[in-house]
Amino acid sequence: MVLSTKFLKQTRQLELTMTQMSQDCLKGLWFCKHAILDGNKTLVQDVSQMHEEVSEQGREAEQICMKILLLQHPVAKDLRRITVATNTIRDLTRIMDQEKEVAELICALNMEDLIVDDCIQQQFSIAKEMITLAIEAFIQKDEKAANQVITMDDQADAQYEMAKEIYVDLLAKKEHDTGTLVDVLLVGKYLERICDHCVNIGKWILYQKSGIFEEIE
């Protein structure tokens, strides 16, 4: 009973830390979105610091996982739960990595010749929804929500493909700053990667029950 109580306490702390990580990821995404849409680079000044905080939270969460594995010796579904948590932590950390890259791109943008197509705006919205749904699916052990995250990736991919077509056309016309157009398209690429990490989280959640992890094609 003592071990069980301690296990529950540790898993609860783990979930709280991961929830904070996801909230910081959402905050960073919000700063990036409004910085590029409003043309206000100052909004991303704190993203680098947030990146450090999420990295530290990730290390703390991984340490909790390690303590559970070494001291509690979980078996069966509890062991899978910790495996899922460890991989979800890594994907949340990588989401923040991508946001830092977006913030750095935004800092380098020529705001006077900035064109942000609606496809990029939609990518921000889809990424936000996928991050929110992914962490909720993890906390609630919700397979339906996990499947929804995975399905939403098709929307994210479609928006990025449309963005590529639009920005390639703009580049061909040579009417706008080439570097700025390329950087905005790179923002779209990083957003696509953020969504891919959300898909990973969804697939790990499904793994918890099935024991099978399906790789992203």
Describe the fold and architecture:
The longest helix is centred in the first third of the chain and has 37 residues. The protein is mainly α and 217 residues long. Helix 1 packs antiparallel against helix 2, helix 3 packs antiparallel against helix 6 and helix 5 packs antiparallel against helix 6. The protein has six helices and no strands.
The separation of the N and C termini measures: 44 Å
Number of strands: 0
Percent of residues in helical segments?
A: over 70%
Mean pLDDT: 92
What is the CA-atom radius of gyration, in angstroms? 19 Å
Short note summarizing the structure:
With 217 residues, this protein is mostly helical.
What topology emerges from the helices and strands here?
Elements: H1 2-38, H2 47-72, H3 76-108, H4 118-140, H5 143-173, H6 178-210
Characteristics:
single chain, mainly alpha, about 85% helix, about 0% strand
